[in-house]
Amino acid sequence: MSWMRWRTAMEQALYGTDGGFYRRPEGPAGHFRTSVHASPRYAGAVARLLTEVDAALGHPAELALVDIGAGRGELVTGVLAAVGPELAGRLRPYAVELADRPDGLPESVVWTDRLPDGVSGLLFANEWLDNVPLDSAERDEQGLRYVEVAPDGTERLGDPVERADADWAARWWPEGPRVELGSPRDAAWAAAVGSLERGLAVAVDYAHTRADRPLFETLTGFREGREVRPVPDGSCDLTAHVALDAVAVPGVHSLWTTQRDALRALGVDGARPPLALASGDPVAYLRALGAAGEGAELTDPAGLGGFVWLAQAVRMPVPEGLARLPGWQTLTP
Q1: How confident is the model at residue 305 (pLDDT cuts 50, 70, 90)?
Q2: Burial environment of residue 16 by CB neighbours within 10 A (0 to 12, 13 to 18, 19 or more)
Q3: Torsion over CA: 179, 184, 189, 190 (sign)
Q4: Is the whole model's pTM more than 0.90, yes or no?
């Protein structure tokens, strides 16, 4: 049986050129429902955030929108459809993804497998960091040891963790029998934030901080809309929650809140339209009722609304609409 650490196993299972999960033709939407797939109102909210970033940057001649982990381009396409013509004329959209460019994507979208460097604008990573491969470790009487996994998902304990991982665990995850060693995610997010000359970097994911760090692992799998055992054979998504306070780049103004509060600040909620509209304009009422249902799903605290938004402002003020949001909390790495 072939054994490897979880980070290597995840890398091959998710992104391997020979059958990696995220390179499959059906894309993520074939297996699970993200906020982007749930409603065009999500892309509309990101478009509104983009306009606030544009204003905070002084309406530059070229404004970047960088969509990391772009899937099949659903979010960047939705944002392009939602912004006004003046902003669209200055917008430079990037979709960062390892899979091949999908058919039908707007020609203006730069499809790339690497971060653009030195751009100014909005960098948005929706459910990306949870798929950045990481190692898992377990504590026993000998200390902290790497967990190794076979292609069928069977696990065993391996070597003692290396010094850098031991230091990370001591600082960020000092308790509990199982540790998800998040330094690869810290590095990935630091690179993303560092790619901005000026702008706002936003990461959206299920996450935890030292105040609510789980005692056990969050690593799990998803296949065809169902949660399944995490098996690193390319047949399912492999995801683990993000250690938010570790990921946040030091020295950069950092705020965080729930998706529920962030989307409400950007004009998305689940409020039902007034019944009077049903008699006056039934078509408009049904349209508004559908939008309310989509808003309720996006902001449900037991579902998509439970995601956490981390916002880091790089050499720019925090956009006014976000700065006024009561739910934002300052995050100190």
Answers
A1: confident
A2: middle
A3: positive
A4: yes
Rounded CA gap, 223 and 304, in Å?
18
Sheet containing strand 110-112, strands side by side: 110-112, 91-96, 63-68, 119-126, 196-205, 308-314, 253-258, 329-330
Largest CA distance in the chain: 72
pLDDT tens digit sequence for 6-27? 999 999 999 998 878 988 776 6
Question: Are residues 243 and 165 in contact, defined by beta-carbon separation less than 8 angstroms?
Answer: no
Query: What's the gap between Cα 13 and its chain centre?
Result: 19
The Cα 19–Cα 119 span in angstroms is 33
Contact of 153 with 232, CB cutoff 8 Å: yes
User: CA-CA distance, 70 to 123, in Å (whole number)?
Assistant: 11
Residues 6+ apart with CB under 8 A from 34: 28, 71, 126, 127, 304
Q: Tell me the C-alpha distance between 62 and 317, whole Å.
A: 18
The token duo for 329 is 């909390």
